[in-house]
Q: What sequence folds into this?
């Protein structure tokens, strides 16, 4: 939800995590939930914060697969707007680690139907990699392609390409 943090009071958030390994297969999972009371905005009543997410990873022989899904339900929507949806997301990624290097690909999508009930969607595709050049020195790079369709706006589509190249130094 993109609502400002001062729109909710008495907020409670909780997360449960699990990580384990069975016969060389690593498994990790999480579940999270957030709830809170919405403050009225300009005299208009809003739906309370009610959001959750689930996700996990499975890793074997250098390969990892991760998935996540979350839903903000009607959090922060005007109670008078039946068609409002504060948003949902889905993401997935696959990575391979080999010695000093790793490569991965990812996908994410978000959806919401806020003020007018018109749907907005965004999709992200990424490819990235890293390589340990020497102890404490890692080079990394990646590219992300993003597209946003905002059916509630006059300028309905936006596409972006983002390149990242850098080094990380650990002491």
A:
């Amino acid at each position: 939800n993109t609502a400002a943090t001062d729109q909710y009071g008495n907020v409670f958030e909780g997360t449960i995590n699990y990580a384990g390994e069975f016969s060389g297969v690593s498994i990790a999972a999480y579940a999270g939930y957030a709830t809170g009371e919405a403050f009225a905005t300009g005299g208009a009543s809003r739906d309370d914060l009610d959001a959750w997410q689930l996700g996990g990873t499975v890793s074997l022989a250098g390969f990892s697969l991760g998935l996540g899904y979350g839903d903000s339900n009607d959090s922060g929507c005007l109670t008078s707007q039946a068609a409002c949806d504060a948003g949902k997301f889905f993401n997935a990624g696959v990575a391979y680690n080999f010695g000093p290097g790793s490569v991965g690909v990812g996908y994410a999508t978000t959806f919401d139907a806020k003020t007018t009930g018109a749907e907005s969607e965004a999709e992200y595709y990424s490819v990235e990699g890293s390589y340990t050049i020497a102890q404490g020195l890692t080079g990394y790079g990646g590219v992300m392609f993003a597209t946003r369709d905002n059916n509630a706006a006059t300028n309905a589509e936006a596409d972006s390409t983002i390149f990242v190249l850098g080094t990380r130094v650990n002491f």
